[in-house]
Structure formats: structure tokens, C-alpha cells
Amino acid sequence: MHRQPPQQDINEDDLDVHEPKTSAAGLKAVAVAMERGVSQAGVTRTVRSMLRVNQHGGFDCPGCAWPESITGKRKPAEFCENGAKAIAEENTTRVVTPEFWAKHSIAELETKTEYWLGSQGRITEPVVIRPGDTHYSPITWQDAFSLIGERINATTPDRCVFYTSGRTANETAFMYQLFARSLGTNNLPDCSNMCHESSGSALNPTIGIGKGTVSLEDIHAAELVLVVGQNPGTNHPRMLSSLRDCKDNGGKVVAVNPLPEAGLLNFKDPQSVFGLVGNGTTIADDFLQIKVGGDLALFQALGHLLLEADKLNPGSVVDHDFIAAQTDGFEHYKMARSTIDWEETRRATGLGRSEITRLAEMMAASKATIICWALGLTQQPHSVDTLREIINVLLLQGNFGKRGAGACPVRGHSNVQGDRTMGIWEKPKEPFLAALDKEFGLAVPRAHGYDSVETQAALERGDVDVFVSMGGNFVAAGSDSGPLEAGLRKAGLTVHISTKPNRSHVVHGKTSLILPTLGRTDTDDKHPGGRQFLSVEDSMSVVHSTQGRLKPVSDHLLSEPVIVARMAEATLGSSHPVDWKAMATDYDVIRDHVSRVIPGFEDFNRRIRDRNGFVLPNPPRDTRTFATDIGRARFTVSPLEYLEAPPGHLILQTVRSHDQYNTTFYGLDDRYRGISEGRRVILVHPADLSSLGFEDRELVDVISTFTGSDGQASERRADRFHLIAYPTARGCAAAYFPEANALVHRELVARESNTPGFKAMTVRFVRHGGDGSTPNETSNNTTSGTTSDAVEPQNKEARQQWDA
How large is the angle between the packed helices 342-349 and 353-365, nearest 10 degrees? Predict the structure, then answer.
């Protein structure tokens, strides 16, 4: 039962670099998925879980939020390689017992990487560390809850923070936000703040909803799908099957990204004979290798070209009837896009005019277009403007409320969208708060709370006494790692509701609790009424049930709803108007409350038991209407903005490895990019390496520069990275997170959404162990100094890879 975890940590000197792959999935993906499952959990647990993942009556994959079909038959293996890895991590029979904590001091654990910590296994019992202690030690559940209640009641609500990750189920999220608001705070930061907050900030004012407007069936039916700032092959692999279906139905796919990604080059579907032994399917019909941060300029240029095309044949490209009936601001937008500065567009995007024109022609010919995006677009200062520009282009052709068309922000965690729907938000709307008051007889607070970045600032100021984390790994997920870790250490009490050890457990408050909880795959049957189930919401607004069936690795684990209820009872007392015990005993009670508080969840308990669950209302998709403050969709006009590095610098973005899901490392093999056994790498175009005076595999320290709103310049530093020659866009670079998070100044955020600028760092390199100077202090600015002729060969190389 107790399988031994890896004893060795990462040794960056073992770094192995080989040619990037030109196809994704296939037989190799099947082999890796099975090997990871068996090595972690054994054959029986692996097979039992794989047969139930994303199946009716089974459990929702703890990986990404890509949906399953609710109209067609589901595949026997309704999961991908990385979903299998996520399940293996949770199914593992490796355990972290009190003996582990007794053996390893905090001083030792601080030296370990996230990979080593997560590899140790599932936590079996609650533990605590108090001021002066060198090790965590066991604590009873009752004493743990008493400690939480005591510390919360000893401070004020505004000095308490309740963070959550996107894997928290709907019922837990509803209880969690209710606990925080019953206490008197809206300090409810979550991982959405760090990822797709920019999407909501752009979509709500323009189309009246902060979610995507397409269904899975729309992806299949689209004439054209743009995949922008996204790597489906690693982050949402099942999306490749949907894109393949789109192509089989005659649709086209265009990839827009600074890095060529194997999944969009070629997809070998492991669920078909052709995918296992054949040549697979070329997914992308074209590839635009854009510079990091150049997407706003691209979509402004596309809007201009679509308007110009419509001038030649009025009504053939622009949907004037839709615009007149359902939108506002078109004339202002039309005037703003009447001209374009092609030279500045080239500087911003790194693309030639012919490349952009080719895409515009494809869009003009399409009667049903979907634009998909992910974090490549949401984590820059001008992200909200970029996404508004995407909405402009979709509105221009009436791509809402019709089959095969719409906006598709592709979410990460499997219930990150559901958490927001359930009220996990620091800026709640009045109708939701009023409904809570009415349902529970409360007077919940109206003042906005902290988001994730504001929480970091409060921690640094010493303004947080109690920090509770429902899942997640706040220290590893946040920007500006050094100040963040110092800030968390100032908190009086940190509480981590977790399944496995992570960095946040060893960079803790003065007192710290780790409370082990059931995972998505575990049976939750310690209730008077018997086995319970939960629900989640996927990227397409479908709400469905999830129920684990595996025996938990420890009898000491509690479910998340029970943990929330017992924290609330210990803090608020038995006279509180909310019946926490009733909700923890029978999750139907939670769903009954939800049905009366949140629109779209009426008759929740009956509908969630339907085979496919139910779909939440989505006015732009369902009725072609827009619930903005003016009752119409909005065209907007934004100034041109892009990222441009000074001489000797590059623009750095963070990315995931293929063996990674957010801050969880499954292994050390980013096989699609050809990098293994190491993570501290910077991917740089060979020409940029040469112009900056560096060589492939050279060991460097990385320095980021940032000028704050006060005009003061500051630097952040991360040491010992290997430079890797890689076909990224010129003037740009890429590194894994969280290793590069230390380089993101906390104030480098997207305007309006306050999302950290993980795709917007200005960096330079110095040789590790040198005098701190760059090899070529006067090197030309590779971001802005290239000519159109110099850019084109680079993009031709990328297209040749695409066509290979």
C-alpha cells in the first residue's frame, strides 16, 4: 500500500535537451498515462479510476475544465494523458504520515522543490506547527477547529482571508463563501484572479456575461476556430479531439502563438487506430507566430481588414442587421479602425502584412467563427483591451447566438468557473448578496474584499492575521515570490486544506495547520444518509455531478464540506442562523439553498441527477441578447498597446511543462518541447541568443526590470537558468512557472482585472557567477529593431515545421 516516493530531488545539471516533437498524443501518451498510474496507485486502483473518469455516475477529472458531450455517446476512455497523470497523483498510495513530519524539519523541507514535496504522497492526518517548533506534529480534528475558531474570533473579519483553488466543488465553494461572509468579509481571492480575471473584466461590460458563449457542439460545427495564446496539447488535450472533429466537418483552425506547439502541429488520437499507428491529423491550417503581447495589434488589424472587405461588397462580411439590432458603439469603432499603421503593427506583432491579410480573408469567408484563448492573452497590462478587441471582431460578423460561433475563454481547473458562479469573488454583486441575506437571515458585508494581488500586498504589510487556503498553493501560484513568502510568514495563522504537501505548507504563518481532505476520486460515505456526491461546472456552463468511488488512503480524512462546516461551527457558534451541520450531513441541503440563491440553479437537486446534468442560461448564446447595463452588446475602442523591450532585453512569458498542471509537477519530461530532467530553463530564439552574446545551454542569472506607477524602477532576480535555443518568436523568451514567478513584480498587473503579468516581463541575462554585466551591453533591440524582411524568414521556418 505504501509505495515509496522518489528519494531524489531535481538536479538541474541532469538537464537533457533534444529536438521538439512535431505531433502530440498517440501511443506514447497511452504508455505514459498507464505507467504513471500504475507506479503511483497500482493496477487495480488505476483501472477502476480510469473507467469512471468523466463518465455518467463517475467523477469529474481533477485536471482541466474541458467538457464532455451531452448530446452524443461518451468514449470508453474519456480522458487525456495529463488527466490520467492528475488522477494518478490523487490516487497514489504513497502517504505522508506523522512519521514523515517527525523526520523532516521545516528547515529541511524549505530546501526541497515543489516536485519533491508533491511526490511524497497523500497527507493522512491533520498536523500543526506553532511558534518555536521545528517540525509539524499531529493534532486532533477537534483541537484544530478550536484553534481556528479561537484565532478568527481574536481578530477582525477584515484581517482574515479565504483563498480557494479552482478544484473546489460547487457545494464546497458555496459553503466557503457563506462562511466568510457570515464572518463579515468579502476577502475571497481565488485562482481566477491570477488567470482568467481579465476575461471576465472584458466580457461582462461588452456582452453581459463573464463566461464563454459556445457549446462543445459549436466547436465541432464552426467554419473557423482561432486558437490564440493557448497550448491545447498540454493544457487541454481533449480539446484536440474537438478541433479534429471540426476539421472532419470541413472547418479550419488557425493557431496564433509565440511558440510552435506540437498539439497544433499534428494530433494522433490515441482512441483511434489511425491515431495510434497512422500519421495523425494536422490540426492548424495556418500558424501566426506572434510576439508576446502583440494580440491587441493583431485584432485591431483584423477589424480594419474585415471592414475594408465589406466596403468592396457591402453586407458580405459585416452583419449590419445584427449590429443595428443588438449592439452599441459601432460607428465609433468603425471610425477608429478606418486606418491602420502597418509598420507599427509589424513592430507590435512580428507578423508580416501578408500573414495578417491571409487570416482576415479566412475570417471574411467564414459564416461561423469561434475565437478561443487562454492565459497567453490574459496576463499582460493591456489584456482587457485585447479581449475587448476580440469581442469587437466577433460582433462585427454577428458571431453570437448562432451555431458554430462565439467567444471561448478556455478555463483551466476543472471547477474554476463553478467557484465564481457559487460566489467565490471579492467583488460580489448586490442581487447575490441580497439573496444570501434573504435565504439565511443574514446581513452579509457589501464592501469589496481582497483579490489575490491585494492579498499579497496585505500580507506584506502585516495586515492578515488568518489566511485559510481551500486547496491550491498560494505561494507557488502568486507573483513576486520573495516578498510573498516573507508576507505569509507574518500571518498569525495559516490553514491549508490540502491533499498533498506543497511549498505553501513550508512557508507558513507563525502558527500553521494542514488539514487533509478527500480528493475528487475518493468515496465520501461517512454520513448518516450514506454516500454523498458533489457537482462541478465545466468551460461550457454545463453543471454535472461528480462522485468518487475509491477507498481513501486514510480513515482520518474529512470531506471539504465537512471541514468548512466544522470551521464555521467552531467560529460562529451553535446559535448562528446557518445550519452548518445539516449541510455537512446531507449535501442536498446545500443544493436546496443554492437553488434559491443563484439564478439558473432552480430545482438543483432534481436536475443534477439527470444523466448529463444541466446547462446554465447564457443569453448571448441562447437568445442572442446581451445583459449589459444598456441591454446591448458594446463595441469598444482601445489605443494600440504592445510590449517592447529596451536594448539588451527580451519579453519573457511563463508556460507550463507537459509534465505539469499549474503548481503540481507530475514528472520532469516536457517531451513535446524536447526538455527533460530540469526546469530552470529559458527558451530563446537562436538569433536573439547570438545578438545578446550568449550561447545555447549557457548558465545565467535572470534579472527583470519594472517601473512602478510612482516612476521608480526596480529589479527582481532569479538565479541559475540554462538558456535553450528554441524557435520562439524573435524578441521573446519563455520559462516555466513557478520557477520564474519571482521575476514578476507584484505591481505588474493587467489594468482593470489586476491579473499578474506573467506574460509581460522585461528581462536581461547575466552570466552566472560573473560580474553582473551582460556580454553585449549595446546589443540592438531585438524586439523593435527587426525589419519586415527579417521577420518573414523566421515565420516561414515555423510554417515549414507546421507543414512537415
Answer: 90
CA distance 649 to 49: 48
- For residue 224, the surrounding DSSP H or E stretch is strand 224-228
Q: Do domains 197-409 and 650-803 have the same CATH topology?
A: no
Q: What single-letter DSSP state applies at residue 281?
A: B
**pLDDT at site 711:** 86
Find out whether 23 and 262 touch, Cβ atoms under 8 Å.
yes
Please tell me the distance from the alpha carbon of residue 557 to that of residue 555, in angstroms, as a whole number. Answer: 6
Q: Which CATH number fits domain 197-409: 3.40.50.720, 3.40.50.10860, 1.20.1440.230, 3.40.228.10?
A: 3.40.228.10
Q: Which residues contact 263 (CB under 8 A, 6 or more apart)?
A: 24, 25, 231, 232, 233, 234, 237, 240, 283, 672
- Any residues with CB less than 8 A from the CB of 150 and at least 6 apart, and which? none
Q: Report the CATH number of the 95-195+415-618 domain.
A: 3.40.50.740
Q: Which tens digits make up the pLDDT trace of 154-194?
A: 999 999 999 998 789 999 999 999 999 999 999 999 999 99
Task: Kindly report the number of other CB atoms within 10 A of residue 134's CB atom.
Answer: 10
CA–CA dist 621, 427 (Å, integer): 25
- Which residue shows C-alpha cell 488520437? 269
Range 650-803: architecture per CATH? Beta Barrel (2.40)
With contact defined as beta carbons under 8 Å apart, do 584 and 607 qualify? Answer: no
Scan for cell 535555443, then name that residue.
725
**Distance in angstroms (rounded) separating the CA atoms of residues 537 and 171:** 11
What ranges do the domains of the chain cover?
Answer: 12-91, 95-195+415-618, 197-409, 650-803
3-state secondary structure at position 699: strand
Tens digits of per-residue pLDDT, 455-508? 999 999 999 999 999 999 999 999 999 999 999 999 999 999 999 999 999 999
In DSSP notation, 372-433 reads EE-HHHHSSTTHHHHHHHHHHHHHHTT-SSSTT-EEEE---BTTHHHHHHTT--SS--HHHH
Inter-residue contact 378 to 168 (CB < 8 Å)? no
Q: How confident is the model at residue 783 (pLDDT cuts 50, 70, 90)?
A: very low
Q: CA 479 to CA 758: how far, in whole Å?
A: 8
- Can you tell me the distance from the alpha carbon of 330 to that of 327, in angstroms, rounded to the nearest whole number? 7
What would the pLDDT profile of 69-111 be if each residue is shown by its tens digit? 888 888 777 778 888 888 888 889 999 999 999 999 999 999 9
Cβ partners under 8 Å of residue 5, min gap 6: 94, 119, 120, 121
Contact present, 533 and 604 (Cβ < 8 Å): no
